[in-house]
Design goal:
The chain has 22 helices and 40 strands. By secondary structure, the protein is α/β, with parallel strands linked by helices. The protein has four domains: 345 residues, Glycoside hydrolase, family 3, N-terminal domain (TIM Barrel, Alpha-Beta Barrel); 176 residues, 3-Layer(aba) Sandwich (Rossmann fold); 136 residues, Galactose-binding domain-like (Jelly Rolls), CATH 2.60.120.260; 115 residues, Immunoglobulins (Immunoglobulin-like), CATH 2.60.40. The strands form ten sheets. Strands 17, 18, 19, 21, 23, 24 and 26 form a seven-stranded antiparallel β-sheet that branches. It has a six-stranded parallel β-sheet with strand order 7-6-5-2-1-12. A six-stranded mixed β-sheet has the order 13-30-29-28-14-15, sandwiched between helices. Strand 3 and strand 4 form a beta hairpin. The longest helix has 19 residues.
Length: 891
């Protein structure tokens, strides 16, 4: 009886208890209901903080910092370098458990110490692996695209997502789904290549796995982040048709098919309006036409960049007002202190309150859907488990194996088979190149966990076969005849490290300096910022003065590299006088230095229009030994049966390339080694196209290994020794020369020829290209039916046979061309691909489903329709190796 009374009492109290809980804390309600209730309880300042994100921790928080909450944090990350806060440095020393403990401590502060207890989202980068210390580094994104294997991409993304969730990170600022239509762009490596169909397929695979794991994916950079000349974040003036046909599809697919809940707006302007404040792009297209329900974030410091770079706002507050009113939801800056500059328009009415509420609601809804209010803390148990999980390594190796592209493989004189894979008559191998010994992983990478170099991978395989391996560094990737003078050799006027600097708000070095201070070195790039806050405009001059200490005795070169006007004095003698507006130039002069002697030095510079750049350079500390290094490489090649040369490029964010050949003296290295008469295999390490006309004929085999991830060394060795048949395919076009750029396979027809007076229009290697150790035959193309209605789908079939003696993979590619249309269409478009494995002699019938969407176009009014007519259906091994061709009639 007593138990029954207590039960009645409990039931009677439950309604009152439930009423005491704010609806937003009630897990029985929907995310939308909870978000709307919480929104009503928030102050304008609290709303602002849910629309502001930064990298960093809260260790140094003082007073009321963070007491109003914040959208999210990128823990253990800070802004770095002279890049206006657009580049970040990551602390990669913490293991998964240490990282989880740190973020749980931070999360507890926001749950317990803020008025409403709104949890933060911990976000990070994960383009090809989480950018953290003990996380697996997979092949770079461009390499993953080269697999042409969406099933593998799902597995890789699932693995990365698992490692990400185990560390408590609930949003990734990935993937990069921009179309790489110009391979001079330094960020090609982060993309899935030049084709919208392939990029969309890879984006969907990546995004869907993260979203299924309860992690918000953030496709970026919206939109068209590469402009004229392949330059990053250059202004975009494409019309809507071009965007709809080329740049929008991967974003649409990532949202519609992948379920992406966030989008990152790009740095660049679109038709003169910054992407992060472009209402047509964010409001009409994204949230209107596509009905996107998630939230849009800016790129790091992009909103502030609209003031200092794009000059579309008078200050940060004005930029914030224009961005939020234009459809941006979350401002991503790189320092807590910047918040005070962006907050005012949120409080004074300059931003429409309905727009603020919509943005906050989108953020809160996402946090509720992630379950952060009910389960805010990351699992330490899961973190411990992930630290002992080796599945990432196995997946990383498989991804590397599938990504490597065989570009050339020739038969040596008197030999029946090509040079690769290695034959049993190989007893010694010369491995050459700094990229063989280093493990270069590409941009936005963690350090890798027990990463394996190409050299170590080859050594491990060779040891089992009793093959001798010799190594020589060869030519440096970034060899230069001179370098920036290190602060070690500089003293300012107060005998401190560096030089004394005076900056003037005029170009004549006249009047009182606006600021005087000390600088460590003369190595300045003032594209994204001015020399000092005291300098008001891009119309300034500067003087640096002090002493330079010589480490050696001898005649050396010293000088200046930069643009605009500069002068160099040593011991009050004018040695370089280029005091006029000029293009970028390097001017050096000979000077006799005595060891341990100090010389008075003075440098003067003026900048009248902006984009100032200046370096103080010399060769007194440069080891000018590239010829000796090449000679060492030649010597070990002569003593070996075969030479393997790893040659790489330098690229990345803020590092677009004007020249696509191998940098430094690497091409001289290849030619010198080839002159020994020994077979030469070149391994290309990089994330974009490389021109090869000066050495390709001398190489017997060429493999593009990309940035192959932490298991890349083992994967490369497996392919060289024949344990795996290479079947990667190029997701970008390799030009013969930079003069052909931009060069893509899916261009529209030209009104004239597509060649040059002095060069072919054909690429060096086309999109979709890749060789194999075996051979394949294509046959028996047939359709379910050749005539279909425009609303019908139809299957096309073909048979693929492995006609070689080795098992291997083939990537079968489907291309479609509209023979006649009301609006000009590309000469061909990829619309399907299958990566299949066949044993020697094995045949397999495969099919492609051709849907109305694959046959559709945008009419003159930009409506997507299927026009009746005839379509060329092409199946082949690359965009320029079509093996089967049929015709489909649509009525």
């Amino acid at each position: 009886m007593k138990k029954y009374f207590l039960l009645l009492l409990l039931l009677k109290c439950m309604p009152a208890f439930s009423q005491a809980i704010p609806p937003y804390k009630n897990p029985r309600l929907s995310a939308d209901e909870r978000a709307k209730d919480l929104l009503k309880r928030m102050t304008p300042e609290e709303k602002f903080w849910q629309l502001f994100m930064i990298p960093g921790d809260i260790d140094n928080a003082t007073g009321d910092m963070y007491k109003k909450g914040i959208f999210g944090l990128q823990v253990s990350a800070t802004a770095k370098g002279n890049t206006a806060g657009q580049m970040l440095h990551y602390n990669t020393t913490d293991n998964a458990l240490q990282f989880v403990k740190k973020i749980n401590t931070i999360q507890k502060f926001f749950i317990d110490k803020t008025r409403l207890g709104i949890p933060v989202i911990f976000f990070d980068e994960a383009v090809h692996g989480l950018v953290r210390g003990d996380a697996t580094v997979y092949p770079q994104a461009i390499a993953l695209a080269a697999t042409f294997d969406t099933a593998l991409m799902h597995k890789v993304a699932h693995s990365i997502a698992g490692e990400t969730r185990a560390r408590g990170v609930r949003q990734v600022l990935s993937p990069v789904v921009n179309i790489a239509n110009d391979v001079r762009w330094g960020r090609v490596e982060e993309t899935y290549g030049e084709d919208p169909f392939l990029s969309s397929a890879m984006a969907v695979a990546f995004v869907s796995e993260f979203e299924k794991e309860g992690i918000i994916a953030t496709p970026k950079h919206f939109v068209a982040n590469v402009g004229d000349g392949g330059r990053d974040s250059y202004p975009i003036y494409y019309n809507e048709r071009h965007l709809d046909e080329i740049d929008f599809p991967p974003f649409e697919a990532a949202i519609g098919q992948g379920g992406a809940q966030s989008i990152m707006a790009a740095y660049n302007s679109l038709d003169g309006i910054p992407s992060s404040a472009n209402s047509w792009l964010l409001q009409k297209k994204l949230k209107g036409d596509w009905n996107f329900k998630g939230f849009v974030i800016s790129d790091a410091n992009a909103v502030g960049g609209n003031v200092v770079l794009l000059h579309t706002a008078k200050d940060d507050a004005d930029a914030a007002m224009k961005a939020i009113n234009g459809g941006l939801d979350v401002i991503f800056e790189t320092n807590y202190s910047q918040s005070r500059f962006f907050m005012p328009p949120f409080l004074d009415g300059r931003i429409d309150s309905s727009r603020i509420n919509d943005a906050v609601l989108r953020v809160l809804r996402a946090k509720f859907e992630l379950g952060l209010f009910d389960h805010p803390y990351a699992s330490e148990t899961l973190a411990k488990q992930i630290m002992n999980d080796s599945t990432g390594k196995e997946m990383a190796k498989q991804a590397a194996l599938e990504s490597i592209v065989l570009l050339k493989n020739t038969r040596l004189p008197g030999q029946k088979d090509p040079i690769l894979p290695f034959k049993n008559n190989i007893h010694s191998i010369a491995v050459i190149g700094e990229d063989a010994a280093k493990v270069r992983l590409g941009d936005y990478s963690g350090p890798g966990y027990d990463a394996v170099s190409i050299l170590d991978g080859i050594k491990q395989q060779a040891e089992k076969k009793h093959i001798r391996v010799s190594y020589a560094e060869g030519a440096d990737i970034m060899y230069k005849a001179y370098e920036v003078v290190d602060p070690t050799y500089l003293k300012n006027l107060h005998n401190e490290t560096g030089l004394s600097a005076s900056y003037f708000n005029n170009i004549h070095l006249s009047g009182k300096p606006a600021v005087e201070k000390s600088v460590k070195r003369i190595d300045f790039l003032w594209t994204l910022s001015l020399p000092d806050k005291a300098i008001k405009t891009n119309f300034y001059s500067a003087r640096w003065e002090g002493t330079i200490h010589s480490p050696k005795t001898g005649n050396f070169k010293i000088g200046l590299e930069g643009d605009d006007g500069f002068r160099l004095y040593i011991n009050n003698k004018l040695l370089i006088d280029a005091w006029e507006k000029q293009s970028y130039d390097t001017l050096l002069t000979n000077f006799y230095f005595e060891k341990n002697k100090n010389y008075h030095i003075k440098i003067e510079f003026f900048e009248p229009v902006g984009n100032g750049r200046l370096k103080l350079i010399w060769n007194a500390t440069v080891d000018n030994n590239w010829k000796e290094k090449i000679a060492q490489a030649v010597n070990i090649a002569k003593r070996s049966d075969v030479a393997v040369i790893a040659a790489g490029i330098h690229e990345g964010e803020f590092q677009d390339r004007a020249i696509l050949s191998l940098p430094g003296y690497q091409e001289s290295l290849i030619r010198a080694v080839a002159e020994t008469g020994k077979p030469v295999i070149v391994l290309l390490v990089g994330g974009s196209a490389i021109t090869m006309s000066d050495w390709l004929r001398q190489a017997d085999a060429v493999l593009d290994v990309w940035y192959p991830g932490e298991q890349g060394g083992n994967a490369v060795a497996d392919i060289l020794f024949g344990k795996y048949d290479p079947a990667g395919r190029l997701p970008i076009t390799f030009p013969t020369s930079e003069g052909q750029l931009p060069l893509v396979y899916n261009h529209k027809p030209t009104g004239r020829a597509d060649y040059y007076y002095d060069m072919s229009g054909f690429p060096l290697f086309p999109f979709g290209f890749g060789l194999s150790y075996t051979t394949f035959a294509y046959s028996e193309l047939h359709f379910e039916k050749n005539n279909i209605h425009k609303t019908d789908s139809v299957k096309v079939f073909c048979t693929i046979k492995n006609t070689g003696s080795l098992a291997g993979d083939e990537v079968v590619q489907l291309y479609i061309h509209n023979q006649e249309s009301s609006v000009s269409q590309p000469v061909m478009q990829l619309k399907g691909f299958h990566r299949i494995h066949l044993n020697a002699g094995e045949s397999k019938e495969i099919s492609f489903l051709i849907t109305p969407d694959m046959l559709s176009l945008l009419d003159k009014d930009l409506h997507r329709i299927v026009e009746p007519g005839d379509f060329d259906i092409m199946i082949g091994a690359s965009s320029r190796d079509i093996r089967l061709r049929g015709e489909l009639m649509v009525k």
